[in-house]
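Entries read sequence, tokenised fold; example below:

***
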Amino acid sequence: MKNATLFLSRFTHFFVGQPLVACYHSLRMMPIFVPTEFLPIIKNFRGGVCIEDLPIDPKERDDFLAMIEALKDARVLIQNPIEDDQALEYFLGLLGKPYPHLAYFLLTEKVQFPL
């Protein structure tokens, strides 16, 4: 894996359980389950972190790199914070402009005045 800075997407939410944590991107809606002990490391990516700067046990390095790749594929970890803005713009574009499909009118001739 090349020496690149990764950021935690602002659309990422964590649902903590034992022994796993669901890392959930609220726009893409694809959870990635990781071991609970990796959660503090993943939260370090909020301000941007280079993977090579993380203190990872050499015995767990392969599992960690595989987890990082899965988080990148789900866009939980991104290479540039601008990717969040682009994703939001894309998903808002899928919605289209709002317009009413149905309207209810409740008509009555009864007029009630205060006494």
Notes: The chain has a mean pLDDT of 86.
